[in-house]
Amino acid sequence: MGCAIVAVYAALRVALESDTLRKLPFLNVLSFAVAGSIALIIPHPLSIVAAAAYFVGSTLESNAIASTFAGGLDRRE
Amino acid sequence: MDGTLLILLQILVAAAVCWINFVAIDLFFKLPEKGGVVGAAAIGKRIEEKGGGLHGGFMMGNIVSSPDASAGTLLASCGVFIAGIPGGLLAALLVYIGNRICHDPGYAGTTGCITATFIVYGFTLIGFSAAAFIAGMVIAILTIQGISHVHASRLLSRLWKVRRG
After folding, report:
1. CA angle A66, A71, A74 (to 5 degrees)
2. Which residues of chain B have pLDDT under 70?
3. For labelling, which of A50, B47, B55, B62 has a CA lying 20 to 30 Å from the CA of B127?
4. What whole-number distance in Å separates Cα of residue B55 and Cα of residue B154?
5. What is the reported pLDDT for A57?
6. Which residues does chain B have within 8 Å of residue A38's beta carbon, measured at their own beta carbons?
7. In this predicted complex, what is the ipTM?
8. What does the angle CA B38 – CA A73 – CA A13 come to, to the nearest 5 degrees?
9. Smallest Cα–Cα separation from B116: which of B29, B36, B24?
């Protein structure tokens, strides 16, 4: 319940923020809330894998979006 | 004590414990030092333009760009909630794989996941519910990434100055 409220709040902040790069931390909160909800709603051993896969996937997407908007290749310094 | 109040209290304590765990480990692994990928650095600079702290912004960018200790703490709580210590350690393995997928050379996520597994398990022994730690970690990340980027990044920058000495 709490996780769902945080998820909706984060989704609203993502929608209201105009700058794409500054949207991403709010999107990160949304991913946390959804990953937490997955584990809380489906208490099955595989849901650990589902929550982790969802979370890592969304992080990788944010990483790609941020790197694209930064105008460079995704490379470590 | 009233049951709902007890759950709320557990969540608040869990949020504080999660916050300390992930911020301490991220600082230890020097996440605020620089943006690990160009995207993380760009997020840090954009937050600084709005009046935030640059190094705090780098840390927030790094949290966005790869599973760090905060993600480790969340997934460890999920793992312990579902399957106890083995669940937490499975989550640590998944975070390790996630770090490699995201080109992250660091071990903040894996370390945070392992420490959180034992912390959360320890708290379940004194009557806490692991579910409170899932909710607590969501609240902890909300305070850093989801309320005010300017204030959160300034706070993290101050903590980074202390860490750097």
Report:
1. 60
2. 1
3. A50
4. 8
5. 93
6. 78
7. 0.92
8. 50
9. B24
